[in-house]
């Protein structure tokens, strides 16, 4: 049976690949449910210290499969309502996963693929790849947390420009606008993303998890609530073996060795 999402282990890094290359890795309900379930499993898998998300073939992900939507037995709205429910669970798994999730953008990232890439902690983009929000050009509105992440990355004015005019964003412009972390040569995004995950996980992973959680929550918290969250997480990190090792190494003037 053809699997629409594949998982491959590269040491302690799990590479998750959308596997519908003929459809530019657009996702239907089956594909996005599979992705969501895989992300849940990897979040709980202690042997997997980080995740790289990419696509097979020439695209990262073209978003929701509009051909599937058009063939839906009910109204188009019902199709998107069902699809978005599962897709949004996958986005939440990416944002709440206590491990680094890096997008290896090997080609077109459009629509839901654009929003999915923005949900990742970091994005490595190949030089010939392009980003495109695509929703508004098809008479739709942005989902997948795109309207949440986009203005926080590029600012409200630039987010409005992207939403209204739907420009095709090449790699150099994506880097300039802060939409991606790094641009690499074609064919190098997967290796670069894996190396980035390994770089992060060679440090204090519990500290990374705390930082990711705090930054996520800061987008909605008041200053008072955020300060209290910071106080609690700082105490937890200090009591964690990573924190104990970091403090000891600082006092002893040596490089920390995190487990």
Number of domains: 2
The computed structural class is alpha/beta
Beta-strand fraction estimate:
15-25%
**What is the tally of helical segments?**
11
Radius of gyration: 19 Å
CATH architecture of the largest domain: Alpha-Beta Complex
Instruction: Look at the structure and give the CATH class of the largest domain.
Output: Alpha Beta
Give the strand order, joined by hyphens, for the main sheet. 1-2-3-5-7-10
Report mean pLDDT, rounded to a whole number. 94
Low-confidence parts:
none
The N- to C-terminal Cα distance equals: 39 Å
Structural account:
It is a single chain. The protein is of the alpha/beta class and 259 residues long. The protein folds into two domains: 5-201, 2-enoyl-CoA Hydratase, Chain A, domain 1 (Alpha-Beta Complex); 205-251, Lyase 2-enoyl-coa Hydratase, Chain  A, domain 2. It is built from eleven helices and ten strands. It has helices spanning 29-44, 66-70, 76-96, 112-119, 146-154, 156-165, 171-176, 189-201, 205-218, 223-239, 241-251, and strands spanning 5-10, 13-18, 50-55, 59-61, 101-105, 108-110, 122-126, 130-132, 169-170, 182-184. It has a six-stranded mixed sheet with strand order 1-2-3-5-7-10, sandwiched between helices. A four-stranded mixed sheet has the order 4-6-8-9.
